[in-house]
Amino acid sequence: MDFFQDTGGRLLVVLLTAPLWWSVLKALWEEVNWMLRDEGGVFGPIPSERERVELLEGPTAAEDPLVEDPILSPLERSHGATTMGSRPAPTEEEDEPRGFARSGKVKQPTRFR
């Protein structure tokens, strides 16, 4: 373990693992900067009263990162459904087997002997 005793080995490990921890560190920095926005962020100047009022109004819909998008099945996407409640009525197409059974290559189970 002499590799980790010198500074070069330690620096090499930090640089090689940077893709793993860099995005986490960046997200933490942005979060802390956003939490301290009333005081101007970590290194920013203190905002004026007008800017502080704008900050207290809250984020707009364009800034809100939590947007609910419904998860649509391929059938719903093909019919143009945009909400979960607007699922189309089942058709005869849905009565046919789905997945591998549809191809006819799946052998139907037989009785055990």
Structure description:
With 113 residues, this protein is an all-alpha fold. The protein has a domain at 19-64. It has 4 helices and no strands. The chain has helices at 7-16, 18-35, 49-56, 74-79. It starts with 6 loop residues before the first helix and ends in a 34-residue tail after the last helix.
What key phrases describe this protein's structure?
113 residues; mainly alpha; 4 helices; flat
Give a short account of the largest sheet.
none
- The low-confidence parts are none
Q: Give the tally of β-strands.
A: 0
Mean pLDDT: 75
Number of helices: 4
Report the radius of gyration as a whole number of Å. Answer: 28 Å
Proportion of beta-strand residues? under 5%
What series of H and E elements makes up the topology?
HHHH
Please report the distance between the alpha carbons of the first and last residues: 61 Å
Secondary structure class reads mainly alpha
Proportion in helices: 25-40%
Per the principal axes of the C-alpha atoms, what is the gross shape? flat
